[in-house]
Specification:
This protein is α+β, with helices and mostly antiparallel strands. It contains 14 helices and 8 strands. One of its GO terms (molecular function) is metal ion binding.
Length: about 400
Amino acid sequence: MAPAWHAPVVTSVPSFVGFSRDTTMYAVSADSKGLDTVVGLLADVVLHPRLTDEEIEMTRMAVRFELEDLNMRPDPEPLLTEMLHEAAYRGNTVGFRRFCPTENIAKIDRGVLHSYLRNYYTPDRMVLAGVGVEHDHLVECARKYLLGTQPAWGSETAVDVDRSVAQYTGGIIKLERDMSNVSLGPAPFPELTHIMIGLESCSFLEADFIPYAVLNMMMGGGGSFSAGGPGKGMFTRLYLNVLNRHHWMYNATAYHHSYEDTGLLCIHASADPRQVREMVEIITKEFVLMGGTVDVVELERAKTQLMSMLMMNLESRPVIFEDVGRQVLATHSRKLPHELCTLIRNVKPEDIKRVASKMLRGNPAVAALGNLADLPSYEHIHVALSSRDGRLPKTYRLFR
């Protein structure tokens, strides 16, 4: 007879599945007494998904809705991020679309899904991570439910696995779109043009990953309105140099995307379509300034903020086991929080200048969305990023 605690573990366990550009994660939080049951459930979900015709059709409907919602959102950051990756890694690896093209939705059936699972759900690509459980007990459960188990897609050997390394190309992706009526409520929303400019950084396996993370925190940024308060980054460069000085800028935010074989540091900016050229020049200037003098005070503030964010996130157990799983999957080991904090503290101004200067020597990746009549050419953006002051080349018009 099953133990009495099985029922509550099964019926009330918090769980979720998360998909990113390079990983898939199945996660469960439960009482440690139910470890055997939970690992069994995880193994069953991962290795024996039912994939009925009804479930697949319902998922197709959900995907169509999400794609429609993606194109209607006032905040275009997810779409711009996709466009930027497509421009940066043209036709390869992380440059492929993360969101399913509408025309492919109907083509995905059980056979396609089983083929994908057969190729990518293999033992050498999996990590089982646990927090708050005995290691030996977790190993015992893994052997019981994951070793020698026949998956739903059969035991054929994977034959179509893409193991290519990301090739950074740079480039531009533009999408002309009427952004004058994106408000989801009665209050009007200003028409904005959105751009994202990025440069290749490094993978998370390289030593320079930490200086790039500090540089990203030093740039910071956000929207033109913020609740402020301690730790909100109001003294980052994009707030001080961009949002505080140019009232017409609605957004200026730095992001850092890092993968096993490449990385991308970018800035997202939004403004009125009539000020697109000025907005682009402001962002190219900020990129060029990254390779200049680094103030000790701003560097210490960025390092402190990064360590604070790291430690606050790791107060949550779900974040801890995600951190354990991702690190072991990528590096076969895990750096403890105090080790990471030591690496962050050791970043010096010359490290920031070195990685920024290296980044600026590459080709830019550009994504632009909205009214693009005044968008500078890709060549002019490249010239600006290669210059000493970040200024765009002057253009002359015979007629106004």
